[in-house]
Backbone:
């Protein structure tokens, strides 16, 4: 009997199944914890501010002293999913905080790379946008030009630095799932905020234009796009053939929930983005 039990515990497939099950439970608990967190942040804006600053501190610490660069990628994905939620909850942050936070994480982590190289395509992509800076400075007052440059180039800068960072690391399938889970968790929390806002609205009328009441009181375009991103990530999990049927059923329900919350904002950009991304992912 002792030998039989030893074989069971030494079976690598049994150990792998146990580890996979534990991973799913941990991921589910992490995502579920963001539902009450998002609702509380919506009610108390100070909590949203503290949450954002805490995430930034952890990410910067991992970038400076951490030995696992993929963790910096996890924080970048988390900030990507949480940025619109922070704005929705009136966090006291600069408007482009999420983009500059990702740039800061990745740039600091890249400095620690022994032999870093700059991929050509991200450099060319961002360099082609730089002439617009000179035109903006010539045609606008300095303060207004600074705001326009920051607003319009922070996104391309974040994309270029992100491409630079991820060119230096290779993620395993498990690490990629962890990164997408980090991105998905705050998006699920935001979807629950929009659901609560819709359910508690006192005077709700549906028309042919975007509705802030069904968008958690924030910009429908931004909320729709973020929820569409969440649906795309959930569908990516769903398309993984190694995921068990019961997990696929939950992921399918989550995908539909995020798509519905994106649709009732009456801003169609999120659905179009999610639909196009899902088609490409399916191929």
Residues:
């Amino acid at each position: 009997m002792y030998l039989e039990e030893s074989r069971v515990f030494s079976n690598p497939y049994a150990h792998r199944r146990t580890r996979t099950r534990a991973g799913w439970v941990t991921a589910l608990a992490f995502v579920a914890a963001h539902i009450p967190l998002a609702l509380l942040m919506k009610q108390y804006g100070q909590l949203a501010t503290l949450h954002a600053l805490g995430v930034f501190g952890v990410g910067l610490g991992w970038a400076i002293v951490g030995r696992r660069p993929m963790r910096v990628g996890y924080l970048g994905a988390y900030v990507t999913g949480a940025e619109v939620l922070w704005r929705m909850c009136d966090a006291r942050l600069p408007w482009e905080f999420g983009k500059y936070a990702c740039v800061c994480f990745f740039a600091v982590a890249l400095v620690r790379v022994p032999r870093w190289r700059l991929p050509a395509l991200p450099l060319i992509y961002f360099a082609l946008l730089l002439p617009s800076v000179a035109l903006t400075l010539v045609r606008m007052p300095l303060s207004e030009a600074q705001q326009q440059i920051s607003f319009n180039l922070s996104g391309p800068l974040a994309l270029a630095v992100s491409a630079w960072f991820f060119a230096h690391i290779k993620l395993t399938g498990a690490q990629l799932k962890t990164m997408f889970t980090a991105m998905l968790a705050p998006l699920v929390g935001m979807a629950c905020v929009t659901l609560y806002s819709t359910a508690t609205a006192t005077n709700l009328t549906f028309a042919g234009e975007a509705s802030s009441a069904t968008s958690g009181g924030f910009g429908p375009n931004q909320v729709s796009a973020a929820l569409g991103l969440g649906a795309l990530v959930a569908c990516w999990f769903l398309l993984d053939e190694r995921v068990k049927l019961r997990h696929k059923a939950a992921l399918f329900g989550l995908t539909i929930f995020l798509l519905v919350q994106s649709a009732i904002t009456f801003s169609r950009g999120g659905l179009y983005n999610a639909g196009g991304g899902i088609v490409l992912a399916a191929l």
User: Anything to note?
Assistant: The chain is about 75% helix and 0% strand. Residues 12-43 form the longest helix (32 residues).
